[in-house]
């Protein structure tokens, strides 16, 4: 009974957090549709630009784009395996997460309210994996 209650609570938290994230990615931060489609399909290109030009970007820009893209997704690594037993295996978890984040990145591209950036998928996945590892460290 206790496990059922915990799973139900984590599912509710996951739905709420996902909703908040969708809002941030598609509508928040004063986003409005651009006239053009923006995308990066070259792995590590954006990350390399931020690292190579660290002194040219304001600290907050660097922090949001690198650290933020990792940190904001840590809760998914915590909540997803707790909410859904089938996501406790790392391959299932990672496949589900990457598909979900790719759908969100594609939505940003198609709605032209952001960009599709493969580096965002990489950083987001690192954050989710950090949360996933934290859960297993705590459980074990």
Which helices and strands occur, and which strands form pairs?
Blueprint: H1 2-26, E1 38-40, H2 45-52, H3 59-71, H4 74-83, H5 90-111, E2 115-117, H6 118-139
Parallel strand pairs: 1-2
Organism: Salinibacillus xinjiangensis
Protein name: VanZ family protein
Keywords: Membrane, Transmembrane, Transmembrane helix
- For the termini, the CA-CA separation is 21 Å
Number of helical segments? 6
Low-confidence spans = none
Q: pLDDT average, as an integer? A: 93
**Strand-residue fraction?**
under 5%
Principal-axis shape equals: globular
> Strands of the biggest beta sheet: in what spatial order?
1-2
SSE class? mainly alpha
The total count of strands amounts to 2
Number of domains: 1
Radius of gyration: 16 Å
How would you describe this protein?
- The chain is mainly alpha-helical and 140 residues long.
- 71% of the residues lie in helices and 4% in strands.
- The protein has six helices and two strands.
- Strands 1-2 form a two-stranded parallel sheet.
- The longest helix is centred in the first third of the chain and has 25 residues, at 2-26.
- It is globular, with a radius of gyration of 16 Å.
- The two termini are 21 Å apart.
Describe this structure in a few short sentences.
The chain is mainly α. It contains six helices and two strands, in the order αβααααβα. It has a two-stranded parallel sheet.
Q: What are the key terms here?
A:
mainly alpha; 140 residues; two-stranded parallel sheet; 2 strands; 6 helices; single chain
